[in-house]
């Protein structure tokens, strides 16, 4: 830890966006402090499906070897079903991975430590004051820190977001995640639509299945055998549920999940990852986007710190780069997500993909970034 507690950059949140930003900036020799409220390793709510394009980011961050060493599960196919019995199968454009956030976030956090960044887990950021002109003061559950710049990588919703417009809009979406034994998926990511929501099944490094669903909260009213009744209305999913046993103490729930566009700067704090905007889980690309948004911001942060970029240009260029890369994908993601919640639309969509497989592949491509690497 630096004695004067002064840093070039303080990064709030040790998820994908925060760790990736920290790793890249520490590699360039900047004094970086990474603050994470939870103690690592920790389980997090997520589908734990890493889309094909993350491999290139992992290689650049120097963690691809570690990810394979812990046994990330290779995934090469996708299988979609609906409650009306429609289904669609497709090859993925390369090898995706199933890996728990328990392992992934730890690998990233440790990599940031190895590169000399100060990384504090179990440290909750209470407030941030200051601006890009005069620098920032970050108040945490442990002590105060100062920096020239702050990156807000605190995820989809945090107490730090209290005054941001998206928190004023009510969102009816709830999500659940847990790990299960008793099922093998053999390299397939499954997505099963049910009335009001959809459920992803993805095998992870332990051989267990990560089950994660997102739905309108109204489905919570009726339950059957430990799951909302709506899930049982998809017969393929129902078969899976019957064969699986839950790993105890590993259940996560979340409500108020918002997919609205967010400002990229809030009181001069630069937002990266989900705190800048989250794509719907249907696309299975949120983690890749979080990593990519860190790749977009780091060169601009570096130029700003070296006084080669004025504050106003930093803000303008990051906002422009973010919009150009993600805005269309986010819109398409929201449209597909809403269609998938409606049994009739889900059925029409999946039937269309079944009779015109190229359409399904086009949708998969349109919701993700450029794939640099397609093999492991
Ligand atoms: C139901 C669901 C399923 C999903 N499934 C997938 C999937 O299968 N594949 C995929 O690619 N994406 C998926 N996503 C999206 C993906 O989880 C996110 O896009 C991704 O985690 C974003 O990374 P991030 O670094 O921005 O945020 P996060 O990974 O959420 O990290 C934010 C970090 O900030 C910390 N933090 C928050 N507030 C504070 C504070 N005040 N002080 C200190 N630390 C703080 C949090 O503890 C957290 O560790 C899913 C999302 C949902 C909701």
Describe the protein's topology.
Elements: E1 6-12, H1 16-27, E2 32-35, E3 49-50, H2 54-61, H3 64-69, E4 73-81, E5 87-98, H4 101-114, E6 118-120, E7 125-131, E8 135-140, E9 144-152, E10 173-181, E11 188-194, E12 197-203, E13 209-216, E14 223-224, E15 227-228, H5 235-243, E16 245-246, E17 252-254, E18 265-266, E19 269-271, H6 286-305, H7 311-341, H8 343-355, H9 357-366
Parallel strand pairs: 1-2, 1-9, 2-6, 4-11, 9-19
Antiparallel strand pairs: 3-5, 4-5, 7-8, 8-9, 10-13, 10-16, 10-17, 11-12, 12-13, 14-15, 18-19
Helix pairs in contact: 1-4, 1-6, 6-7, 8-9
Bound molecules: flavin-adenine dinucleotide.
Quick tags:
376 residues; alpha+beta; FAD/NAD(P)-binding domain; 9-stranded mixed beta sheet; 8-stranded mixed beta sheet; 19 strands; globular; binds flavin-adenine dinucleotide
Folded structure, characterized:
By secondary structure, the protein is an alpha+beta fold. The chain has a domain at 6-72 and 98-169 and 258-338: FAD/NAD(P)-binding domain (3-Layer(bba) Sandwich), CATH 3.50.50.60. It is built from nine helices and 19 strands. It has helices at residues 16-27, 54-61, 64-69, 101-114, 235-243, 286-305, 311-341, 343-355, 357-366; strands at residues 6-12, 32-35, 49-50, 73-81, 87-98, 118-120, 125-131, 135-140, 144-152, 173-181, 188-194, 197-203, 209-216, 223-224, 227-228, 245-246, 252-254, 265-266, 269-271. Strands 3, 4, 5, 10, 11, 12, 13, 16 and 17 form a nine-stranded mixed beta sheet that branches. Strands 1, 2, 6, 7, 8, 9, 18 and 19 form an eight-stranded mixed beta sheet that branches. A two-stranded antiparallel ribbon has the order 14-15. A hairpin with a 2-residue loop joins strand 18 (265-266) and strand 19 (269-271). Helix 6 runs antiparallel to helix 7. The protein is globular. The mean pLDDT is 93. Flavin-adenine dinucleotide binds at residues 12-18, 35-38, 45-49, 51, 124-125, 153-155, 158-160, 175, 212, 214, 257, 273-274, 278, 281, 284-288, 290.
